[in-house]
């Protein structure tokens, strides 16, 4: 059983992403992420952090290599098996991506959509269990009292917590968060990062967060991966990472500018 437990939840094998205009987003990346890790990805703007997350849940296709999710290739998956793998991966965006004119409850329920055949969600036939699950997800991020508010009545931090609840109701194995706190004030930032950390620790979901802030990376991450120009230039436990090493991730910029 030990070898089964040790299987990484995400494996990137020689992953290269070249955009149609020729820009190299990712260069031959080899990376394993294990079940239950809280990984923080840091690097300059344009380094390839978003490209990496979008490759993992196949929001876009990669040009070379292979990505395995819990042992299954998402790169090669088609149709139903692709949908099933995607269901295991929740995504959180900097801009929240809520349906602004819909209620908080309805937004969180959309996390369940992947579990229904298309005709059912068209007619809004969410089950009682799903509504209960959505409510519990909102409780977990302290947003239950806003369940009937419209999303656009909430502050940015509250909207991000609703988007976390939406991901929770999806019940994924992996949460990918692309600069989830970039547009939030420091206090709200702390709340959102703490929610993600709690979800990681209490529910065992693997979390990967792209962050601009090294301070946040050190405070919340257990592992730091540094990306520069589409390549992994650093990978290590936060506890053993020095400030000089982090500065090195950002190196190269000074000469260029
Ligand atoms: N759709 C796209 N088409 C062409 N180039 C892109 C596209 N998206 C991102 N890039 C380029 O890929 C590189 C990595 O971008 P990105 O992953 O967004 O970086 P980060 O998230 O670290 O700021 C950058 O040079 C960026 O300009
Ligand atoms: Mg980005």
TrEMBL record:
GO cellular component, one term: membrane
Endpoints of the signal sequence: none
Gene3D superfamilies assigned: P-loop containing nucleotide triphosphate hydrolases
UniProt-recorded Gene Ontology molecular function terms: ABC-type phosphonate transporter activity; ATP binding; ATP hydrolysis activity
Pfam family, one: ABC_tran
ABC transporter domain sequence ranges: 10-254
Alphabetical list of InterPro entries matching this protein: AAA+_ATPase (IPR003593), ABC_transporter-like_ATP-bd (IPR003439), ABC_transporter-like_CS (IPR017871), ABC_transpr_PhnC (IPR012693), MetN_ABC_transporter-like (IPR050086), P-loop_NTPase (IPR027417)
Highest taxon of source: Bacteria
SUPFAM superfamilies: P-loop containing nucleoside triphosphate hydrolases
Keyword terms of this UniProt record: ATP-binding, Cell membrane, Membrane, Nucleotide-binding, Phosphonate transport, Translocase, Transport
Statement: the UniProt record of this protein carries the keyword ATP-binding: yes
Full protein name: ABC-type phosphate phosphonate transport system, ATPase component
Annotated source species: Amylolactobacillus amylotrophicus DSM 20534
């Amino acid at each position: 059983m030990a070898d089964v437990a040790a299987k990484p939840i995400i494996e990137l094998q020689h992953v290269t992403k070249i955009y149609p205009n020729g820009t190299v987003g990712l260069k031959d990346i080899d990376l394993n992420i294990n079940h239950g890790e809280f990984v923080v990805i840091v690097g300059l703007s344009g380094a390839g952090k978003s490209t990496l997350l979008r490759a993992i849940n196949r929001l876009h296709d990669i040009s070379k290599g292979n990505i395995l999710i819990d042992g299954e290739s998402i790169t090669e998956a088609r149709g139903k098996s692709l949908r099933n793998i995607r269901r295991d991966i929740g995504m959180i965006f900097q801009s929240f991506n809520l349906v602004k004119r819909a209620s908080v409850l309805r937004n969180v329920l959309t996390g369940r959509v992947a579990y229904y055949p298309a005709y059912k969600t068209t007619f809004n036939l969410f089950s009682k269990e799903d509504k209960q699950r959505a409510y519990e997800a909102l409780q977990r991020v302290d947003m239950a009292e806003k369940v009937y508010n419209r999303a656009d009545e909430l502050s940015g931090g509250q909207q991000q917590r609703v988007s976390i609840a939406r991901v929770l109701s999806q019940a994924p194995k992996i949460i990918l968060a692309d600069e989830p706190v970039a547009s939030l004030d420091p206090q709200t930032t702390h709340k959102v990062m703490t929610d993600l950390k709690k979800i990681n620790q209490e529910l065992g979901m693997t979390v990967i967060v792209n962050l601009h802030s090294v301070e946040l990376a050190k405070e919340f991450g257990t592992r730091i991966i540094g990306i520069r120009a589409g390549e992994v230039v650093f990978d290590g436990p936060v506890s053993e990472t020095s400030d000089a090493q982090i500065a090195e991730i950002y190196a190269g910029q000074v000469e260029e500018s």
